[in-house]
Amino acid sequence: MRIYTRRGDDGTTSLRGGARVAKSHGLVEALGALDEAQAALGVARAECSRGGSLNGLLAGLERDLWAVMGEVAAPGGAKETVTPAMVAALEATIDAHAAGLGRIDGFALPGENRLAAALDSARTVVRRAERRLVAAEGNGAGLVLAYVNRLSDLCWALAREAEDALRPAREKKEED
């Protein structure tokens, strides 16, 4: 199977629906950043226990980003694939994971452990995707932008939770 088409050799690519645009087009930049965000979530997932709840959550978020990218790739013509229920589900997930964090004073320093660092890295990539979406769409892209905004918040909450999960073990080790 040949995976190259040579159609992009002229510096253009196809959006959903067939329109050809420059690879530097704002929508292509946004799609690239969303693709990076999906991969960054995959890196974080690789740090999780297989079959664990966080692994499943991150895999679901990666799948959701396909819907987000599909909507972004079809400007002005595609039915909306990002729904209010998807945004609400992210908000409920954020609330559930942030509930046990307690008060956070100051900024978080990424790198407490590999999982937290990967989640913080994913958060920054998602934020870049959000900026690219705003640049491509003007004032934003409705539910797509809301979803991406909440996704970065969730990555932050998950990173803090990942830090907290290892604190008791580390503190115990330091006492020995």
Any chance you could write out the topology, listing elements then pairs?
Layout: E1 12-14, E2 20-22, H1 26-46, H2 53-72, H3 84-98, H4 114-137, H5 143-175
Antiparallel strand pairs: 1-2
Helix pairs in contact: 1-2, 1-4, 2-5, 3-5, 4-5
Q: How would you sum up this structure in a few lines?
A:
The chain has one domain: Cobalamin adenosyltransferase-like (Hypothetical Protein Ta1238, Chain: A). The protein has 5 helices and 2 strands, in the order ββααααα. The chain has helices spanning 26-46, 53-72, 84-98, 114-137, 143-175, and strands at 12-14, 20-22.
What would your notes on this structure say?
- β1 (12-14) and β2 (20-22) form a beta hairpin.
- With 176 residues, the protein is mainly α.
- It starts with 11 loop residues before the first strand and ends with a helix.
- The chain contains five helices and two strands; from the N terminus they run ββααααα.
- The chain has a single domain, classed as Hypothetical Protein Ta1238, Chain: A.
- The chain has helices at 26-46, 53-72, 84-98, 114-137, 143-175; strands spanning 12-14, 20-22.
- It is globular and about 50 Å long.
- It has a two-stranded antiparallel sheet.
Keywords:
single chain; 176 residues; mainly alpha; Hypothetical Protein Ta1238, Chain: A; two-stranded antiparallel sheet; 5 helices
